[in-house]
Amino acid sequence: MTAASVPDGRTVVRALVALKLRLLRNGLRRSPGRTTVYLIGGVVGLAFAGGIAFALAMLNGRYAGSANAGVVLLGVLTLGWAALPLFLFSSDESSDPTRLTMLPLRPGPLLRGSLLAALIGPGPLISLVLVTGAALSGAEGGASAAAAVVGVPLAVLCLVTLSRAVAAGNARMLSSRRGKDFAIFGGLAFALLVQAANVGSQSIFGRRGGPIDLSPLKPIASVLRWIPPISAADATHTAGQGRYAPALLQLAAAGALLALLLRWWQSSLQELMVTADSSTLEVARGVQASRGWRFLPRGRTGAVMQRHLRYAWREPRAKAALFTSIGMTLVICVLSVVQGWSSVYLLAMTGTFLGLQMLNLFGMDGSAFWMVAATLRTPADARDELRGRAYAVLSYAVPVAAVLGLVLAAVTGDWAGLPSALGLALAMLGCGVALGSVFSVLAPYTMPADSNPMRNAAPGQGGLILLNQFGSMFGVALLALPVGGYLLWALTSDGPTWPVLLVGPLYGGLIATLGIRLAAARLLERTPEILAKAIER
Fold this sequence. Notes:
There is one protein chain. The protein is mainly α and 537 residues long. The chain contains 20 helices and no strands. The longest helix is centred in the last third of the chain and has 37 residues, at 499-535. 39% of the residues are buried.
């Protein structure tokens, strides 16, 4: 390749910025619904960020230690920008540098163009608003204004560079299946952190209109304010107090961090451009059939069960759905314990959420569903197909419900209520299996072509997703009403609750069997439509 074939640096920068703008425009032009959701989300995000910034500015001068609140907010914002690419990396294709590895680009122009492109979008704008509010929380006088002119843009630039440097440094790991697995656990950890922040904010800002107490933030802020890029925004507070040398030191620390991040980002880009992916260098190896599946039923039911369990463990979207259901239950249980309203009967959520794993069974297969469709010749084949998938869901849902029930009983001390709570959970699990089977046949929807674990449907499927999700949740509550109604009567009238442990699983099994039979009766005639939905991209 000659030097003339390598594009000029300015041309590369302009092309990357134009590419980012075109990606945004084309993404919004895919459907009116997508455009509406994007615009509404952007406006709501900006309004929320503006409200937080205004609240921080109002704290200044009214509460002692108001600057500490801004410093802690910047700490959370920095953690978010650093962790975001680790579990949402594949949702933003413009942040994936591996897509440019085959182009004749030098690292320097690629770095400048990528940085300018990264500054385009609602994320940096919302961060700019939040950083400005944090800076105003401790501002005082003209010196603070002068420090803010430098510190606020520097902090935002550091945040964006930090995110892209982390993404580039872990690009190949995040593009692999293990990276997508890590993304799933990262998302669950993020949900737990959000709940922890919610509990912490209630203790700081008081409950039921109580007084605001910012004193717990002081020891945390005293450390965070010297950590860049937080130090850049906090320099406004330091300069406002007349301590100009420490303020300059805070700005210099942020500038040094920006230089190090840019250096790391550039070296990562250079390595990606010149180093082959190790996954392409592996030699083919024979795959030995596993002997650990002998406990499964024989015939088609066992084969389907094995295939579904492999999906649940290996397919990123299936794994994301499974661990999200378990994670939502754990988050609500932990929050209930912290806030003092926990009950062993929260176990019923486990049956509901895990029963929803039966939704859109065939959409997860994608184009591979044609192999399944080709073998569906008789009603017995259809029943075995649905029964195998239901057994797979039950094989992990029942143990999870039992373990979580023991934990809830130990935390709440309500061991007497554990049997009835477990019976109700199993009844709702069976109802969820039944409704999931029916909705999978009557209302399938298309899964996206990529393997992004954070995307569970292709664009334009909003109505079907709402029908599946909310219809199933309300349907489970209605179908389980006989068991739940008896339990409510027994609890309010001091009647026996132990029959629920016996009736619940039997009732759930009966409803699940009936739902599978009804779905199987329609599966054969609707196979062409389901196949069209499965392979549509």
